[in-house]
Design a protein that fits this description.
The chain is of the alpha+beta class and about 80 residues long. Helix content is about 25%, strand content about 35%. The chain contains two helices and four strands. It has helices spanning about 15-20, 50-60, and strands at about 1-10, 30-35, 40-45, 65-70. A four-stranded antiparallel sheet has the order 2-3-1-4.
């Protein structure tokens, strides 16, 4: 499974509504409005990288979003065998 965090900036006063809408998109596992340089942080997951791109494309259609930055989660490190 490929997972990513999506950092989102919204129009003023739209963060909560955007987060609620995003949480209903298939593949979005969480969407929270936050304080800081981004207004919403979402986590998405798909079986392949192209699936993540498709989810982000669906996210871009949500009204009130002004900017999106996608950060794919690195593959987990192998367990230490000591």
């Amino acid at each position: 499974m490929v997972q990513a965090f999506v950092l989102i900036q919204t129009e003023v006063g739209k963060a909560a509504a955007v987060a609620a809408t995003l949480s209903r998109i298939p593949g979005v596992t969480s969407a929270e409005d936050v304080l800081g340089p981004y207004d919403v942080i979402a986590r998405v997951g798909a079986p392949a990288p192209t699936g993540v791109s498709d989810i982000v494309d669906d996210m871009k259609k949500v009204r009130g979003i002004t900017r999106i930055l996608t950060c794919q989660i690195a593959a987990p490190a192998a367990p230490n065998e000591n």
